[in-house]
Amino acid sequence: MCANGFHIQGGSMKIYRVSSFVVLAVFCAVSVIAGGKGEGATRPQEIRFAHMWQEGASEESEIALGLLNELDRRNPEWTLTHEVVTGDEMRNKIRVDVAANNAPDIWQFWAGGVLKDYADRGILADFREYIADSSRLYRDHIPEGAWDLVSFDGIPRALPRNVSIGVFGVNTELFERYGLEYPTTWAEFLALGPAFREHGVTPTNIGSRGGNPSHFWYGDLVCQYEDGVTDTMMIGETLNTRTPAMIRAAEYVDQMRRAGMFPDDVIAWGDWAPSYALYEQGNTAMLYTFAWMFDDMSEEMVAKTELIPIPMVPDAERDTRGFIQGSVNDAYTVAARSYADANKRNALVQLLDVIGKDIGHALSELGTIVSVDNEVMSRVDLDRIASPMMRKTLAYRIENDMSGSPMIWQNLPSNTLQFTYQALLDELWAGAITPAQYIDRFQAALDEHRANQ
Predict the structure, then answer these.
(1) What is the pTM (predicted TM-score) of this model?
(2) Residues 314 and 334 in one domain
(3) Structural domain boundaries, residue 256
(4) Could you read off the pLDDT of 242-261 as tens digits, one per residue?
(5) Residue 297 or residue 405, greater confidence
(6) Which of 9, 210, 339, 445 has a Cα-to-Cα distance from 69 of 20 to 30 A?
């Protein structure tokens, strides 16, 4: 069975459906009214947009905010209010805002089960209406597999944004310095634990804080089994984690912990920015990260990083040369009542068009995302992508015909289960619970969810 993922094909950078199938978490909510609207003008209609582009934080943020402010200036009849929240804190913000009946008009979120709670409660707009209203987006610009991940009862409830792009690689300088070979088997991989520890080097940067980046790594182990792909895709329906693939993956994680493969303090060096910083500083020999961290990679570190397949566990059934975790990651949602408001609807259509088409294209050329929109990617020249790490990664994926694999987190049917899953991985990574306890407690949470349905 093939994973729910996307392929990147050839120099034309086409992304297509293979089959049906976040950033330092610091709360920094800020409201900024962008662009002047003119003296004495009628009070403009406010459009509240919650996103993760913090002013001055990165080139990506500056490009995105520049395009948003330009749109704002062109439309004096409405004004854009930015509510900036980074990383997983966006989940907390939206939960609180919705509970207070104060949801933003539009917000950046994630695809998959994280949307389901809000879709079931009627919070989210029907994006078939946006597709009909837009003069720039046609449904077939985006693969159906991407629409599937934001659809509930057959109705799309968000605009898919990007394909998550993962990498596993080695610091060639450290391997050469200590005369060590790149791992090609699981045994060779685990043997690098004591080999690098002897020289004061941490073998990998894979920590776990809030389940990042650990839940991706755990998913990559699960998906080394044919049934693991199915288990992952169907967990929202089966509510079952007592499967051979998930049990074995937890046991292999524990093998890594006992071999000293993780950072000494998995919490402190967990989450995206800290785990990548450990690698950038030259303190870890192997890298596991995703495209949202490529902007932090120095050209020097890109040059000394060689991408390799994740080592296969001894009883693996799928070749890791052909896949790594990743599918549609982010999406943009709109409050149903906002889209139903005639005073806001045109503004929201224009805003979604700019986000999907203009910002999507600009950031894909920058190399901080890979847009899920095929029309957008058809206008991106791989050789002109600004990010050297994204160029290296896409070339590697094309050469090796790699695709994405589904994510457990994304397929869980509630926010509560997602938080539970991630918290349990923190404990497993730290050795606070055994693999069996991890499975038991995760299954208990799934059983409780079933009982409450």
Answers:
(1) 0.78
(2) no
(3) 166-325+414-451
(4) 999 999 999 999 999 999 99
(5) 297
(6) 339
